[in-house]
Amino acid sequence: MKRIILSIIFCVLCLHINAQYNCIVKASDRESVTFRVVGYGSNTKKTSIDAELSAIKNLCFIGADGTSYSLPMVSVGEDKATTDNPAFFNSFYAGQYRNFIELSIAVSNIGKDASKRKCQTFDIKVKAEKLRKYLEQNGIIRKFGL
């Protein structure tokens, strides 16, 4: 019995979850990626902001499986990128990211998830190509092919 409990604890501690944001790729083309995202917050405005940031962060730091953006745009990881460029990411997360949201549609009413947190599902379309160019222009990532 002790071995089973220790094995479970070991597995829980050693598991690494890749997807830190609750995003699923719904569609993509050369210029953009559409995600189905769950946003968390106390009201629709806060859930919308959380969902949009999750879609942006997913594209930047995790990638979008099954698209031409399957690899993360920022290869160094979120922690290092935000530590190395705090001014850029503070202004980006404060509102600049909205320039790269093409569409944000609520597909469910606000409700509660299994852990009783208020959440809402959105379809978020991100201008991926413009976001990549913006990150290049600001020195966050290297230009493609260089």
Give an overview of the whole structure:
By secondary structure, this protein is α+β, with helices and mostly antiparallel strands. It has one domain. The protein has five helices and five strands. Strands 1, 2, 3, 4 and 5 form a five-stranded antiparallel β-sheet that branches. Strand 1 and strand 2 form a beta hairpin. Helix 3 crosses helix 4. The longest helix is centred in the middle third of the chain and has 18 residues. About 7% of the residues have low confidence.
What is this structure, in a nutshell?
With 146 residues, the chain is an alpha+beta fold. 39% of the residues lie in helices and 21% in strands. A hairpin with a 5-residue loop joins β4 (111-112) and β5.
Mean pLDDT: 87
Overall, the morphology is: globular
* Rg computed from alpha carbons, rounded to a whole number of angstroms: 17 Å
Query: Share of helix among residues?
Result: 25-40%
**Helical run tally:** 5
Q: Helix and strand succession?
A: HEEHHHEEEH
The chain-level structural class is alpha+beta
- Percent of residues in β-strands: 15-25%
Number of strands: 5
Summarize this structure as a short list of keywords or feature phrases.
146 residues, alpha+beta, 5 helices, globular
Topology summary:
Layout (H helix, E strand, L loop, with lengths): L1 H13 L8 E6 L4 E8 L3 H18 L16 H7 L1 H9 L6 E6 L4 E2 L5 E9 L1 H10 L9
Antiparallel strand pairs: 1-2, 2-5, 3-5, 4-5
Helix pairs in contact: 3-4
